[in-house]
Amino acid sequence: MIKRVNVLGVGISVLNLRTALDAVAAAVRDRRKGYICVTGVHGVMEAQADVSFRNILNQAFLCTPDGMPMVWAGKLARHAEMRRVYGPDFMLEVCAWSEASGCKHFFYGGAAGVADQLADKLRAKFPRLHVVGTYTPPFRRLNDVEEAQLAAKIRAAQPDILWVGLSTPKQEKFMAEYLPKLEVTLMVGVGAAFDFHSGRVRQAPRWMQRGGLEWFYRLCSEPRRLAGRYGRNNPLFVMKFAAQLCGWKKYSLH
Q1: Is the confidence at residue 56, as pLDDT, over 80?
Q2: I need a labelling partner for 65 at 20 to 30 A (CA). Which of 1, 40, 189, 221 fits?
Q3: Distances in Å between the alpha carbon of 61 and those of 12, 35, 133?
Q4: pTM of the predicted protein model
Q5: pLDDT for 197-209, tens place per residue?
Q6: pLDDT in tens, 229-239
Q7: 218 domain-assigned
């Protein structure tokens, strides 16, 4: 059983890239169905006002520490082995492992053409990667016909892992709803990894990622879209987490 750190009522799994990959390998081998949420400040803050979303995060097979504040929370809880399990890096680690394991992948999400671009880029990087399909969904809920088409496509492709590239909390809600409906072992919500690895969006430099400044890089890159999110979420997270650390506010994982 993988331990979790309570961050404002969200259980963040105590992981690093190695242990996260080991958990994925074991789940695929044993055909253990589950979904994986890569979670940072944005996800934790979305869960504050949405109890159903918080439950989705806490019922995930893994809820990886996607942002450095999640890692710092783990360190404060004396989990020295905890490291960032960043969605785009996690995707590459799993793909590299898959070349030898034969794990089959399906990419769901992104704007028109992005899933196909992602598949092509990853095949070029990992020549033995087994990609069995892609699907670009509409920017709304699937209707009954689309849902049946997706289920049929997944049934025919028989992927082990379905990568979901939507936005938080949309991708997590999709995974929780569709995991019982689709014939796949694992679903992994990786959001912006689709845009990063397809080449549509540039990633922050590594030194900014390690220093917890990726949010600032992304804010500078997309100010109109992200100013509201970061301007609201980041200060509020700091205040709430400080209150949790001091014992002024307690949060339950249940």
Answers
A1: yes
A2: 221
A3: 11, 6, 23
A4: 0.91
A5: 886 767 667 776 6
A6: 767 878 899 99
A7: no
Which two three-digit tokens encode residue 147?
């849902």
Taking only the tens place, the pLDDT of each residue in 88-133 is: 999 999 999 999 999 999 999 988 899 999 999 999 999 999 999 9
Cα gap 24→36, rounded to integer Å: 9
What's the domain range around 22? Answer: 4-206
Amino acid identity for residue 206 in this structure? R
So what's the pLDDT on residue 64? 97
Cα–Cα distance between 172 and 189 in angstroms, integer?
Answer: 6
> Does 21 have pLDDT greater than 80?
yes
Tell whether the model's pLDDT for residue 228 goes beyond 80.
Answer: no
181 within a domain of the structure (yes/no): yes
From residue 245, give the alpha-carbon distance in Å to each of 11, 81, 91, 201, 241.
15, 20, 32, 36, 6
CATH of residue 180: 3.40.50
The answer to whether 63 touches 39, Cβ cutoff 8 Å, is yes
Cβ distance 83 to 71 under 8 Å?
yes
The two three-digit tokens of residue 52, written as one number? 């159903």
State the Cα–Cα distance between residues 156 and 35, nearest whole angstrom. Answer: 20
SS3 category, 132: strand
59 domain residue, yes or no: yes
CA atoms within 13 A on the CB side of 157: 25
Contacts by residues 89-94 (CB-CB < 8 Å, ≥ 24 positions apart): 89/17, 90/17, 90/20, 90/21, 90/38, 90/64, 90/188, 90/190, 91/163, 91/188, 91/190, 91/193, 91/197, 92/125, 92/197, 93/17, 93/20, 93/21, 94/21, 94/24, 94/161, 94/188
